[in-house]
Specification:
Number of helices of chain B: 20
Largest interface: A-B, 35 and 30 residues
Structural class of chain B: alpha+beta
CATH class of the largest domain in chain A: Alpha Beta
Helix content of chain B: 25-40%
Bound molecules: flavin-adenine dinucleotide
Number of domains of chain B: 3
CATH architecture of the largest domain in chain A: 2-Layer Sandwich
Strand order of the largest sheet of chain A: 1-2-7-3-4
Distance between the termini of chain B: 74 Å
Largest sheet of chain A: 5 strands, antiparallel
Strand order of the largest sheet of chain B: 3-5-1-13-10-11-12
CATH topology of the largest domain in chain A: Uridine Diphospho-n-acetylenolpyruvylglucosamine Reductase, domain 3
Strand content of chain B: 15-25%
CATH superfamily of the largest domain in chain B: Aldehyde oxidase/xanthine dehydrogenase, molybdopterin binding domain
Number of domains of chain A: 2
Shape of chain A: globular
Oligomer: heterodimer
Radius of gyration of chain A: 18 Å
Helix content of chain A: 25-40%
Number of strands of chain B: 30
Number of strands of chain A: 10
Distance between the termini of chain A: 49 Å
Shape of chain B: globular
Radius of gyration of chain B: 27 Å
CATH topology of the largest domain in chain B: Aldehyde Oxidoreductase, domain 4
């Protein structure tokens, strides 16, 4: 089973299956496109990254997701790859995942005669592992509108500016008051643990405080506890650890009201 | 005069002729052959870095259905050794394997699936030998030998050059700086991996089509290695899909030839996949360099000591010549009266290092140009001023003591940089860095020798034929590996013969049709072949005009007034125009063809009495020059370095096709940015840890900034239309220019390339005291 085939292609090259019966979900109309609903949007699992990037609902209501899609792979990969594939591949480096975590995405799973919904954080359980049972497919993603947030941040650290597997990434949604208080915050890091890390204690520790370097520095110990990066050919664990913290400081530059506040 | 519009004129920017067919996918590369009855050939690779071969177990493989043949060294009846200078590389390993990518057995199969299965079935019984994985280990007393018979032990080539009082003069300097640098491997990463096909014809001819830069040299190597007559081999070299030096020498040629000998007249094809290209293909030499550079208080360079160590892997593969070129360029384009320059090219059991655009120069340029900046800082001179005070002019001596008797345009390049907006506005740009960003600007001066040096003859033979249809057919003896030289040849011929594209034809290198013209390498391709082509074109033009005058005009001296037009000859006084297709009938078969040989001039000076170094190419006579300038931005939070603007000002003589020239410069810069910032072939105990393009990171279009290329177009008197080599020089500059820019941005120098984010962040943290922003 595949949708865009971009992950499958790589896997098949390494381990050819012969003969391989392949079922392509990518041509099923119902699994494609974005539908607006009163409380948000439903994204068909087989929507390509490129189609979502050019979709006004995604761009305006869920800019954090658009920012993640913008740096995923390269134009050909974004044309073929799908958001459902990115979720089902369940890589800690999947670029749509941190945005979907902070958006509290709910997945719709379908089988021949059942539909169930599951939060993305409960669906993905390990690298390459998700709770998809035999006979089930991911039909789509439910996102809730939340116009409250005024910072929509995504940063991916990779070895180059395109076609890069994330070495660390951070997705953040914040509501910061005019006086600079963090009123609401959602954070999710990619590539620093077996799955996406979205530590509620870090979020709680930030809430109610000024968005300042000091505030962000203070949560570093909690963050350090929450992540468990690995050494691999792309980066050392130490680098990932340092950078996971450092990129949180980038939020200072995105303070919505006054240029350079709090630095 | 509309016909005149499309005449190919030298100096005009025109699209290369291969652009259309390549973009449309119509151009046939060496491995684009899927003829009937095809045999698939593949290689069993060693997989371990150093071992004695006890037994190669092939019985099971032989019995597999669909396997045609399994060949080992026992099936080779020649020397089984190939190489350009020292022939030390087996076609198929016999006594030992010396790196993981050594070829041990060759399998011929009916299809790809069987081939893969067959290769997996081959077992090799080894007696493992201690491996040599570093330069230091190789040079240790009593280190295991990689080539027991090599008189130099693990040292392939050593060079020791001294001018003036050498390093002793460092003591007389007012300021001296010192640096230890390391530079990494670089993978060629061409789009088209190594490949081709071959066929043994009924009359016993071996026809090989391969992606190669050196069809004529390959002939001799294949013949000797396999013990067959050179005359019975024919090699065709279509356009390469990139080569950059990685196809300067044998890749698949001998294997294909051996395969064809066992295919009963069936065509046989072999293409390395990306992983095989990584493991078996050559790479840029990694190295370590120790530099000490001293100057007088006024900024005049006075003494240099440079020690250069290159890891050449287990085979020569031009590793000696590469060291020699490195040594020749070790002191950069400066006047330095006293210099000690020493170098070692060392055998190891690491991947094979070989020719790669730049050929030993990018490594030394990285060290020299950074050392120059360190010295400038100590003297409180601007990097530009430091270079202006010491730049070579025509008539000066190089750090090797060789007089520069050819065009030398470095000073003009430096002047142009000083006048350029990017130089003038750099402080303003640096000051406007965003939060968590640091900006820096760096420059580097480079020079690059052209051709083979004093001993190996650097010649080319051009051939032009006036076809029966009245077109000119250019027999191109040097490979076009993607750099566009074939188009340039048409432009040269078109200019001289006053023809448009419709009346020009091209024959790509083919040892049976085109004439020996040396390799597509050493920044010599257009210089040497271009000069030969001018000779051939002028002679043919003269013959045609003379003959048409004799036949068509009343006065035979009218040959002087007749002119060529596209497809015709024109006589202005009478307005008479005769098609070339008619003229051709007045010419004998042999008269329709014009051949001319050109041999590149060499210098008579001898900076060394070491004949071996001279054989390996020291010294050169003609050099191109350049100044590179890089704007970089460093992210303090991640350590990521981004090149944001780039300028290259070059003295490559006059430019024949500005478009093709710019592509060369831009390509060199892009490849150099990869070398500087992200390309890092990691090797551990002889095994490549980054064996594919997912882990070995080359830059994408998103990583390459806007690049500006300016040519100062100084005439080189010996060059065809005044040109000098341009193929390599652009890769010499980016690493030092960027490293200098990073040092300028961060206030700390990183001596180890590539300047990848992890390294830069560590340096920034160390500078900050290692505390500030740690999670
Ligand atoms: C060169 C390259 C660069 C890449 N760069 C990036 C990058 O920068 N960032 C990034 O995150 N990813 C990257 N990827 C990975 C990949 O492109 C993405 O993960 C993509 O979103 C996968 O989608 P797909 O539709 O192509 O998946 P497919 O290959 O079609 O499927 C992947 C897996 O998911 C399953 N699956 C797919 N759809 C469904 C469904 N609807 N229901 C149930 N199971 C399903 C398949 O069975 C398969 O196991 C890259 C891949 C390549 C080859």
């Amino acid at each position: 089973m595949y949708a865009g085939g971009t992950d499958l292609l790589v896997r098949l090259r390494k381990n050819p299956v012969n003969p391989f019966p392949l079922v392509c979900l990518g041509q099923i109309k119902e699994l494609k496109g974005v539908r607006e609903s009163p409380e948000g949007a439903f994204i068909g699992a087989c929507s390509s990254h490129a189609s979502l990037l050019s979709n006004p609902i995604i761009r305006y209501a869920f800019p954090v997701l658009a920012k993640g899609l913008q740096v995923l792979g390269s134009p050909p990969i974004r044309n073929m790859g799908t958001i459902g594939g990115n979720i089902c591949t369940a890589s800690p480096a999947g670029d749509t995942l941190p945005p979907l975590y902070v958006l509290d995405a709910v997945l719709e799973i379908r089988s021949q005669n059942a539909v169930r919904r599951i939060a993305i954080k409960d669906f993905i359980v390990g690298p390459g592992q998700q709770r998809l049972n035999k006979g089930e497919i991911l039909a789509g993603i439910w996102l809730k509108n939340d116009p409250d947030f005024n910072i929509h941040h995504f940063e991916k650290v990779g070895q180059r500016n395109a076609l890069a597997i994330s070495v660390a990434s951070l997705s953040a949604l914040l509501k910061v008051s005019e006086s600079g208080i963090i009123e609401r915050v959602r954070l999710a890091w990619g590539s620093v643990a077996p799955t996406i890390v979205s530590p509620t204690n870090v979020e709680a520790a930030l809430k109610g405080h000024f968005l300042s370097k000091d505030t962000l520095q203070k949560v570093m110990p909690l963050l350090r506890e929450a992540i468990s990066p690995i050494d691999d050919i792309r980066a050392t664990a130490a680098y990932r650890r340092t950078v996971a913290g450092n990129i949180l400081l980038r939020l200072l530059a995105s303070f919505p009201y006054k240029e350079g506040y709090g630095t | 005069m509309t016909v005149q519009k499309n005449i190919l004129k030298v100096g005009k920017a025109i699209h290369r002729i291969d652009a259309r067919s390549k973009v449309r996918g119509a151009e046939k590369y060496a491995s684009d052959y899927y003829g009937q009855n095809l045999v698939w050939a593949g290689v069993k690779r060693a997989g371990i870095p150093h071992a004695r071969i006890k037994n190669i177990i092939i019985e099971k493989t032989k019995n597999l259905t669909g396997v045609i043949s399994v060949l080992t060294y026992r099936d080779i009846h020649g020397s089984n050794r190939q190489g350009v200078i020292r022939r030390d590389q087996p076609v198929l390993a016999d006594d030992k394997v010396r790196h993981c990518g050594d070829a041990v057995a060759l399998v011929l199969a009916e299809d790809q699936a069987v081939l893969k299965e067959a290769l997996d079935l081959i077992a090799i019984d080894y007696e493992p030998l201690p491996g040599i994985f570093s330069i230091g280990k190789a040079l240790e007393q009593g280190a295991p030998l990689i080539h027991e018979e090599h008189p130099g032990g693990n040292v392939l080539l050593k060079g020791d050059l001294k001018t003036g009082r050498g390093e002793a003069a460092l003591e007389e300097c007012d300021v001296v700086v010192e640096g230890y640098f390391t530079v990494p491997y670089q993978e060629h990463a061409y789009l088209e991996t190594e490949g081709g096909w071959a066929l043994l014809t009924e009359d016993g001819h071996l026809e090989i089509t391969a992606s190669t830069q050196t069809p004529f040299r390959d002939l001799a190597e294949v013949a000797e290695a396999l013990g067959i007559e050179r005359e019975s081999i024919r090699i065709r070299a279509p356009y390469c899909g990139g080569a950059f030096g990685g196809k300067d020498g044998i890749t698949v040629q001998s294997l294909l030839a051996l395969a064809a000998l066992h295919c009963q007249g069936r065509p046989v094809r072999m293409v390395w996949d990306r992983e095989e290209s990584f493991i078996a293909g050559v790479k840029r030499h990694p190295g370590s360099l120790h530099y000490r550079l001293g100057a007088k208080a006024d900024g005049t360079l006075y003494a240099l000591s440079a020690e250069v160590y290159y890891d050449t892997g287990p085979y020569d593969h031009l590793g000696g010549a590469i060291l020699a070129l490195g040594l020749e360029h070790a002191g950069g384009p400066y006047r330095i009266p006293h210099a000690s320059i020493r170098g070692w090219s060392v055998y190891t059991n690491n991947p094979v290092a070989g020719a790669f655009r730049g050929f030993g120069v990018p490594q030394v340029a990285a060290a020299m140009e950074q050392t120059m900046d360190m010295l400038a800082a100590k003297l409180d001179l601007s990097p530009l001023e430091m270079r202006r005070r010491n730049a070579v002019h025509r008539g000066d001596k190089t750090p090797l003591g060789v007089t520069l008797i050819s065009s030398t345009g470095l000073a003009e390049c430096l002047d142009a940089v000083a006048e350029h907006a990017l130089w003038k506005e750099k402080e303003r740009w640096k000051a406007s860095a965003g939060s968590s960003k640091k900006r820096g600007v760096g420059i580097a001066c480079v020079m690059h020798g052209m051709g083979y040096g004093p001993i190996v003859p650097d010649y080319a033979n051009a051939k032009i034929e006036l076809t029966k249809k009245g077109a000119f057919r250019i027999f191109c003896g040097v490979v076009d590996m993607g750099q566009g030289n074939a188009s340039t040849y048409l432009q040269i011929a078109g200019d001289i013969l006053n023809q448009d594209m419709d009346h020009l034809e091209l024959v790509l290198p083919d040892t049976e049709k085109t004439l020996p013209s040396g390799s597509a390498s050493a920044s010599r391709t257009t210089y040497t072949f271009g000069n030969a082509l001018i000779g051939a074109a002028e002679a043919l033009k003269k013959r045609i005009l003379q003959r048409s005058a004799e036949t068509c005009a009343s006065d035979p001296n009218d040959g002087l007034t007749m002119v060529l037009r596209p497809g015709s000859v024109f006589h202005p006084p009478t307005g008479k125009e005769i098609p070339l297709s008619q003229i051709v009938r007045m010419l004998d078969e042999s008269e329709r063809i014009s051949v001319f040989e050109f041999r590149a001039p060499v210098t008579q000076e001898r900076p060394t009495e070491d004949e071996n170094l001279r054989l390996h190419g020291i010294p050169h006579r003609i050099f191109s020059y350049g100044v590179h300038l890089a704007y970089v931005e460093v992210d303090e939070l991640t350590g990521k370095v981004e090149a944001q603007r780039y300028l290259a000002i070059s003295d490559c003589g006059r430019i024949i096709n500005p478009q093709v020239f710019e592509q060369q410069i831009q390509g060199g810069i892009a490849q150099g940015i990869g070398y500087a910032l992200c390309e890092d072939l990691v090797v551990a105990r002889g095994k490549i840890q980054t064996p594919n393009l997912s882990t070995y990171v080359i830059p994408t279009a998103m990583d390459i900034p806007e690049m500006e290329s300016i040519a100062i177009e100084k005439q080189e008197e010996t060059g065809p239309f005044g040109l000098k080599g341009a193929g390599e020089i652009a890769i010499d500059g980016p690493l030092p220019a960027i490293a200098n820019a990073v040092a300028d941005a961060c206030g700390v120098r990183i001596f180890h390339a590539p300047l990848a984010a992890g390294r830069v962040l560590t340096a920034l943290e160390a500078k900050r005291g290692g505390k500030e922003v740690k999670a």
